[in-house]
Design goal:
The complex is a heterodimer. Chain A is built from no helices and eleven strands. Chain A is an all-beta fold. By secondary structure, chain B is mainly β. Chain B starts with a strand and ends with a strand. Classes of the chains: A mainly beta, B mainly beta.
Chain lengths: 118, 113
């Protein structure tokens, strides 16, 4: 069964350091998402790509976070500098869109990257 | 920001019992989805219900949607220890061209053997 690959699974860093996460979506999925999930809460969207273009980054803290998907396939999310409040699970997901007049995005998530900032 | 609110926040039952979780949301939606998350893992899609549907079944799952009350419920029948997980509802706003999903805070379900 096809999976969304993410690495690293765990990352411990000190504040002010740079950190990067990688995601490889399911082949053929044009839409890719990065979510942040703080312990005990639901995922919140950071950025959404359609192919190589960013279509929604309204919740991305752009002073320290950046994301790219250069060839419209895999993607990297970077944080520089990391802050204590960035400790969270970073989830990548990709989706296909169901057919129909109101097509729905059904997301397939990776296992996530758990970030701890000390 | 989060759109859905699940209730209860935590639910503890015995194997074989039914588990019911509720989700309330604020805006008009295209569809509502339920996802499961095992501890420390990613989310897994369970079921989708469109705004013009009232009930949907998938195996031991039954989802209802009441758009007039802006609420949905997820019923898991004959629960098993393996159903222990967090369950999230996610909504997509009506008219959204991107189909962005807004997740609630989740219900933590514990099923005891």
């Amino acid at each position: 069964e096809a999976e969304v690959a993410q690495s690293p699974r765990y990352k411990i860093t000190e504040k002010s350091q740079a950190v990067a996460f990688w995601c490889d979506p399911i082949s053929g999925h044009a839409t890719l998402y990065w979510y942040r999930q703080i312990l005990g809460q639901g995922p919140e969207l950071l950025v959404q790509f359609q192919d190589e273009s960013v279509v929604d980054d309204s919740q991305l803290p752009k002073d320290r976070f950046s994301a790219e998907r250069l060839k419209g396939v895999d993607s990297t999310l970077k944080i520089q500098p990391a802050e204590l409040g960035d400790s969270a699970m970073y989830l990548c997901a990709s989706s296909y869109r169901l057919a129909g007049p109101e097509g729905a995005n059904v997301l397939t998530f990776g296992a996530g990257s758990r970030l701890t900032v000390l | 920001s989060q759109q859905g609110e699940e209730d209860p926040q935590a639910l503890s039952i015995q194997e074989g019992e039914n588990a019911t979780m509720n989700c309330s949301y604020k805006t008009s939606i295209n569809n509502l989805q339920w996802y499961r998350q095992n501890s420390g893992r990613g989310l897994v899609h369970l079921i989708l219900i469109r705004s013009n549907e009232r009930e949907k079944h998938s195996g031991r799952l039954r989802v209802t949607l009441d758009t007039s009350k802006k609420s949905s419920s997820l019923l898991i029948t004959a629960s098993r220890a393996a159903d222990t997980a967090s369950y999230f509802c996610a909504t997509s706003d009506r008219g959204s061209t991107l189909g962005r999903l807004y997740f609630g805070r989740g219900t933590q379900l514990t099923v005891w053997p």
